[in-house]
Amino acid sequence: GLRRCLISTDMHHIEESFQEIKRAIQAQDTFQNVTILSTSETLQSVKPSDTCCVTKNLLAFYVDRVFKDHREPNPRILRKISSIANAFLYMQRTLRRCQEQRRCHCRQEATNATRIVHDNYDQLEIRSAAVKSLGELDVFLAWIDKHHQDTSA
Amino acid sequence: PCVSGGLPKPTNVTFLSINMKNILQWNPPEGLQGIEVTYTVQYFIYGQKKWLNKSECSNISRTYCDLSAETSDYEHQYYAKVKAIWEANCSKWAETGRFYPFLETQIGPPEVALTTEEKSISIVLTAPEKWKRNPEDSSVSMQQIYSNLKYNVSICNTKSNRMWSQCVTNHTLVLTWLEPNTLYCVHVASFVPGPPRPARPSEKQCVRTLKDQSSEFKVK
């Protein structure tokens, strides 16, 4: 099988950063009946061979859309979001290397999974969509933990 | 229907979650001592369409409600809310933040079995079990949910008062190079790498290493 593409980023630091802003960000999200990532059909149904490509696509989703679309007035929260964004840029470089080493194939299934995420995003007004996606970062961080961290450590 | 806002809201509405047993709990509204207030609870599955009733938690006088069954799909996220009722008056709803069992449940301590030799203690750990709806349901170990479940084993030599701890991933651990005929105490906490979660260690267990057999023979 495909040797897993491990991300050596200190996930603990990113998760702590998000934990500190999670309540405040999720409180800004008033559309409880809509989700961006958390539909169980989307992420839970991704096959192991497609997880790396989905991760790559979701990193691009956050870096190219969410972080750019979000307007954060609170400087403390903004600093935390920036540190998470920088960590995602580092992860993107790691996955790019994996792709060059042919350990991160992208098939139609992965593209379909991430299109659902983009479609969910497009359903909402841009600021609401961005804050909702930020509020669901714990889902994506748990996904990275599960699929790209060395569990023997 | 009651007059909404006629009473102050319950406070500190939170989920207390241990091994996926998810209890909604709250404090009574302030300033209503001596008044027989009752409470009604609703819950919401994030991404779904409407709030749902929990019939066993309608007009209750206790300040907690077991929502384990309603929140058993731990990969989903949830909200819950409660309001206070007294005669024709009721409070506005008091709501939790978004609750994500997979990331927020507290992993209970493992079962700890100790056996001793002269200079070693063998520790066998059994992962805690996930909450189950009915006692006769088959058990699911928290290890099955968290493949990266780890244990923090804390050991104390009660003679020298020396303490140390080890992080282990497998279920057996042998402590070697111990002092014979010495009482050692052990307690173990489970944890999962990821967002910080509260941890509750196991009860402290103490065992004495066996006497040094070689010194016994000399004495004879």
Folded structure, characterized:
The complex is a heterodimer of chains A (153) and B (220). Chain A has 153 residues and is an all-alpha fold. Helix content of chain A is 66%, strand content 0%. Chain A has helices at 11-28, 51-69, 75-100, 108-123, 126-135, 137-148. In chain A, helix 1 (11-28) packs across helix 5, helix 2 (51-69) packs parallel to helix 4 (108-123) and helix 2 (51-69) runs antiparallel to helix 6 (137-148). The longest helix of chain A has 26 residues, at 75-100. Chain B is mainly β and 220 residues long. Helices cover 7% and strands 41% of the residues of chain B. Chain B contains three helices and 16 strands. In chain B, strands 1, 4, 5, 7, 8 and 9 form a six-stranded mixed β-sheet that branches. In chain B, strands 13-12-15-16 form a four-stranded antiparallel β-sheet, with no helix packed on it. The longest helix of chain B is centred in the last third of the chain and has 7 residues, at 213-219. Chain B is elongated, with a radius of gyration of 24 Å. The N and C termini of chain B lie far apart (87 Å). The chains are: A mainly alpha (153), B mainly beta (220).
